From TrEMBL:
Gene3D superfamilies: 2.60.40.290, Glycosidases. Residues 36-346 form the GH10 domain. Its EC number is 3.2.1.8. Belongs to the glycosyl hydrolase 10 (cellulase F) family. The lineage of its organism: Bacteria, Bacillati, Actinomycetota, Actinomycetes, Glycomycetales. Residues 368-472 form the CBM2 domain. It comes from the Bacteria. This is Beta-xylanase. The keyword Cell membrane does not apply. It comes from Glycomyces niveus. Transmembrane segments: none annotated. It holds the Pfam family CBM_2. InterPro entries: CBD2, CBM2/CBM3_carb-bd_dom_sf, CBM2_carb-bd_dom_sf, GH, GH10, GH10_AS, GH10_dom, TAT_signal. Residues 354-366 have a biased composition (Low complexity).
Length: 472
């Protein structure tokens, strides 16, 4: 059975293949070369997730943040919006506005969602922590059922339990969960999640288990038991690493979990260094990211990598480890670090991935839509560079729609090299696009987005043609 992520990739790949076939263009020649310039396209090409932890507030308020997430990543994880304190702050009082925003954005942009997290000793409301064993079990079961049922078929995988092993010689973490319910709380959580969403992949997630050590040995023991009950699909390795300290045993350690018949996933990758960073430290960081990415790329059962934040100033690291930071792939101004390039190359991409000019951060050029009865569409240039640009497009429904079509003609040498959340004939001077399977149904007043990268060979400023939108 295809999971949601695989179905979405099949739809996108099929749409691109139809478009290129209609024009007599070989997919392996034109599109494959262009796809190698983003993390997302390189990961798609090898069937891996490249994910990012998303701050939903920034997703809603920062256009460049939003478009970088859509362009560079094929998988999203809510940094905080799906944790217990965000979804059920009071007993039985559920709130899903931020979680819904993230899942809707992922669907609009053809991305999968890795859910984080059902059961954790942190960011769980006080009302849960003071319950007796019976009441705590009931609260856990209700919470997992409610959240998992809401996102069944929309969230592809879940961190079911998080950080259950202590840093002390591999002992179980002395959490309120363990004190009230014993180690069996872990099994209860997985049994509940499996019943609530049988098609989602279920992970146990922890930090400092990348190498072969006492803590990873305890996770291995837990994984054996859960796997024997068919309630565990994978192990998540958080990989909050320190510069120059990728464990030498990391590949062999991940392999032993694969040998159990499990998937592995790098779920929260960042690599911190002392700040301010110098060129040598950034080069070492790039090498460390390359090594971790290659380990996952070369393991058939590594489902993917999620970096824990977009830009360095989005990271949790400086607030927890003062004097350190610069742990991610993008600088604060959205420019790409050496670690971005090494990660892209380790995924099989090509080139530096670095624009030769600073991406636009304010006042992006925006087209003015012509009047239309059924829908209107706009294009905007988000990240221009000398030989290309990233565009964002918005389709707004003026009436209830079950599908939409857009068309425009490039005035110069601009040509779409890769696109997301749109199908059709995309590669020539005249573009005829249509909704993807998941973003065509809109109520009056609703909007959806799609995006693409272009190449242009004349060095001119990226143009913003007028787009015509019609109901399908």
């Amino acid at each position: 059975m295809l999971h949601n992520r695989q179905r979405r990739r099949a739809l996108i790949a099929g749409a691109v293949t139809l478009a290129t076939a209609a024009l007599g263009i070989g997919l392996s020649t034109q599109f494959a070369g262009a796809q190698a310039t983003t993390l997302r396209a390189a990961a798609d090409a090898i069937g891996k997730d490249i994910g990012v932890a998303v701050d939903v507030n920034k997703l809603q308020s920062n256009t460049q943040y939003r478009n970088t997430i859509a362009t560079e990543f094929n998988s999203l994880t809510a940094e905080n919006a799906m944790k217990w304190d965000a979804t059920e702050p009071q007993d039985g009082n559920y709130t899903f506005s931020q979680a819904d925003t993230l899942v809707n954005f992922a669907e609009d942009n053809g991305q999968s969602v890795h859910g984080h997290t059902f059961v954790w000793h942190a960011q769980t409301p006080n009302w849960v922590q003071g319950l007796n064993a019976t009441a705590m079990r009931s609260a856990m079961v209700d919470h997992i059922n409610t959240v998992a049922n809401r996102y069944e078929g929309r969230v592809d995988s879940w961190d079911v339990v998080n950080e259950v092993v202590s840093d002390n010689n591999g002992a179980m973490r002395d959490s309120f969960w363990l004190r009230a319910m014993g180690e069996g709380y872990i099994t209860t959580a997985f049994q509940t999640a499996r019943a609530a969403d049988p098609n989602a992949d279920l992970y146990i997630n922890d930090y400092s288990i990348e190498g072969d050590n006492a803590k990873s040995d305890t996770i291995y023991r837990l994984a054996q038991g859960l796997k024997s009950q068919n309630i565990l699909d994978g192990v998540g390795f958080q990989s909050h690493l320190i510069l120059g300290q990728v464990p030498s045993t990391m590949e062999a350690n991940l392999q032993r979990f694969v040998d159990l018949g499990l998937k592995v996933r790098i779920t929260e990758l960042d690599i911190r260094l002392n700040t301010p960073a110098d060129a040598n430290e950034l080069a070492q960081q790039a090498e460390d990211y390359r090594r971790v990415t290659e380990i996952c790329a070369e393991l058939a059962d590594c489902s993917g990598i999620t970096v824990w934040g977009l830009r360095d100033n989005d990271s949790w690291v400086p607030g927890t480890f003062p004097g350190t930071g610069a742990a991610l792939l993008f600088n604060d101004d959205f420019s790409k670090k050496p670690a971005y390039t090494s990660t892209l190359n380790a995924l099989g991409g090509g080139g530096t991935g670095e624009p030769t000019t600073t991406p636009a951060t304010t006042d992006p050029a925006t087209s003015t839509p012509p009047p239309g009865d059924g829908c209107t569409a706009t294009l905007s240039v988000q990240s221009p560079w000398n030989t290309g640009a990233t565009y964002s497009a918005t389709v707004k429904a003026n009436q209830a729609l079950t599908g939409w079509r857009v068309t425009w003609t490039w005035p110069g040498s601009e040509r779409i090299s890769n696109a997301w959340s749109v199908t059709g004939t995309l590669t020539g001077a005249t573009v005829t696009g249509a909704n993807a399977a998941y973003n065509g149904t809109l109520a009056a007043g609703q909007s959806t987005t799609f995006g693409f990268n272009i190449t242009k060979n004349d060095g001119s400023t990226a143009s913003v043609p007028t787009v015509t939108c019609t109901p399908a």
